[in-house]
Design brief:
Shape: globular
Number of domains: 2
CATH topology of the largest domain: Arc Repressor Mutant, subunit A
Mean pLDDT: 87
Bound molecules: zinc ion
Low-confidence stretches: none
Largest sheet: 3 strands, mixed
Structural class: alpha+beta
Length: 152
Amino acid sequence: MQTQSITISPDELSQRLAFFEEECRRRGLRVTEQRREIFKTVASSHSHPSAEDVFAVVREKMANVSLDTVYRTLASLADMELILRVGTAYKERFDGDLRPHAHFICSKCGEVYDIFYDKKNMMLPLREAFSFGDVRQICLQYKGSCKKCMPH
Ligand SMILES: [Zn+2]
Ligand SMILES: [Zn+2]
């Protein structure tokens, strides 16, 4: 597994923000500062933050945002497929990277690791998926213990 930097490049972030604003406009959804900030927090790193993580960051900038608002906004962004839900039901995390990729999820610490596919070398089941239509997302999750949680 390749190591990944947690932050993304400014170029990539502005691309993701432009995509977000365009999608909101297309759906007639107002781009409120709060919604934008919550999206940006998820989209600006590879850390797959939880709702609580997002809340901690957004609260720094917007003192009157509530955890409940963050939960609801993340849920609606996920329903709109602007971000992805990853992790387990009780330790839900969010992903702003919409490129098809799978995840390794540690069932001990809940850490989420990205696994990217080489498009030319996709696994057979994925090729089959493409025969049904256009694949936008893959929700493949590998579960186990990550290196940090394995006994030394
Ligand atoms: Zn772990
Ligand atoms: Zn991911």
